């Protein structure tokens, strides 16, 4: 308890100033270091007690009253061990109490921090709720607007469908007309070629008849001129 009171009573100062300077430990670290040092001291006392007891036992066998010497050594060993055990229990109790206090302090600090942050959390929660409600209202307004515009969209769709149908009808009519004109042009070309062929045949027939007439006339003249 004295060791803890010393560490908790005020700040710990550095033993010496070197380059770099020694950093002053925090109270928590100082208490833990004190516990470690005291535990190491108890462990050292235990080891020393075991060693002394073993040496004393060994030396007893060289004395005349061996049993008496061994009893005294054993009694001394038990007395030292009892004191070490009491010191160990005291240290363990101090460590347990210290850890309980640390836990309670951490819980208190967390509760205080949570209490300090609670207004901010409430404001944030209220803001989030407002944003959520605003999104819900906006969603409802958008849905109502879409429902209100549905008849107009349907009418627009029907008008668009009629325009598309009229455009397709005109396109089909123009295509059919183009096909008919193409067929008419092909027939005209065919008739023209037929007329040209007939004219050529007629010309050939006329020329053939003229040639025959000329040959007959020439033959007749030759007959008349013969003696």
Main features:
single chain; 227 residues; mainly alpha; disordered N terminus
Describe this protein's structure.
The protein has 227 residues and is an all-alpha fold. The protein has a domain of 106 residues. Helices cover 89% and strands 0% of the residues. The chain has three helices and no strands. Helix 1 runs antiparallel to helix 2 and helix 2 crosses helix 3. The termini are far apart.
- Radius of gyration, taken over Cα atoms and rounded to an integer in Å: 64 Å
Q: What are the low-pLDDT stretches, counting only 5+ consecutive residues below 50?
A: 1-25
Percentage beta strand: under 5%
Shape: elongated
Oligomer status: single chain
Q: End-to-end distance, in Å?
A: 184 Å
Q: Would you count the extended β strands for me? A: 0
Summarize the structure.
The chain is mostly helical and 227 residues long. Helices cover 89% and strands 0% of the residues.
List the helices and strands and how they pair.
Elements: H1 2-8, H2 27-60, H3 66-225
């Amino acid at each position: 308890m004295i060791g803890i009171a010393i560490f908790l009573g005020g700040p710990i100062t550095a033993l010496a100033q070197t380059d770099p300077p020694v950093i002053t430990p925090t109270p928590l670290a100082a208490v833990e270091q004190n516990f470690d040092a005291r535990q190491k001291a108890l462990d050292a006392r235990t080891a020393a007690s075991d060693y002394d007891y073993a040496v004393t036992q060994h030396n007893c066998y060289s004395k005349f009253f061996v049993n008496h010497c061994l009893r005294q050594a054993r009694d001394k060993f038990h007395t030292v061990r009892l004191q070490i055990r009491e010191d160990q229990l005291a240290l363990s109790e101090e460590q347990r109490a210290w850890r309980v206090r640390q836990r309670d302090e951490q819980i208190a600090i967390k509760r205080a921090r949570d209490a300090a942050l609670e207004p901010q959390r409430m404001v944030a929660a209220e803001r989030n709720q407002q944003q959520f409600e605003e999104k819900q209202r906006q969603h409802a307004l958008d849905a109502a607007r879409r429902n209100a515009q549905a008849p107009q969209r349907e009418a627009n769709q029907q008008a668009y469908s009629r325009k598309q149908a009229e455009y397709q009808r005109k396109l089909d009519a123009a295509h059919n007309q183009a096909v008919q004109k193409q067929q008419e042009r092909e027939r005209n070309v065919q008739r023209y070629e037929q007329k040209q062929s007939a004219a050529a045949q007629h010309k050939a027939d006329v020329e053939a008849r003229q040639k025959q007439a000329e040959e007959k006339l020439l033959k007749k003249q030759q007959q008349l001129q013969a003696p």
